[in-house]
Write a structure and sequence with these properties.
Blueprint lengths: L3 H28 L3 H9 L5 H10 L16
């Protein structure tokens, strides 16, 4: 049984899939100043599963309170 089709077709597609999700998750973790998540996402390879969960479950961007006005300097 030959694994040539897997190595030349499926493996590169999985690598691209994982790279896209990892990049988006790392970007979000960096913008949220979440060092622990950044390190975990960088070191753990789950073919995009952990990255997708981070983006849609745990890593939602925190809403900024725009109603607060800064005091004027004297």
């Amino acid at each position: 049984m030959s694994l040539g089709w897997f190595v030349f077709i499926i493996l590169p597609l999985l690598m691209i899939w994982s790279l896209v999700w990892k990049g988006m998750a790392l970007w979000r973790a960096a913008k949220n100043n979440s060092m622990p998540w950044f390190v975990v996402l960088l070191l753990v390879n789950t073919l995009g599963i952990l990255e997708i969960l981070y983006l849609f479950v745990w890593g939602k961007k925190q809403k900024e309170n725009k109603d607060v006005k800064m005091p004027k300097p004297m």
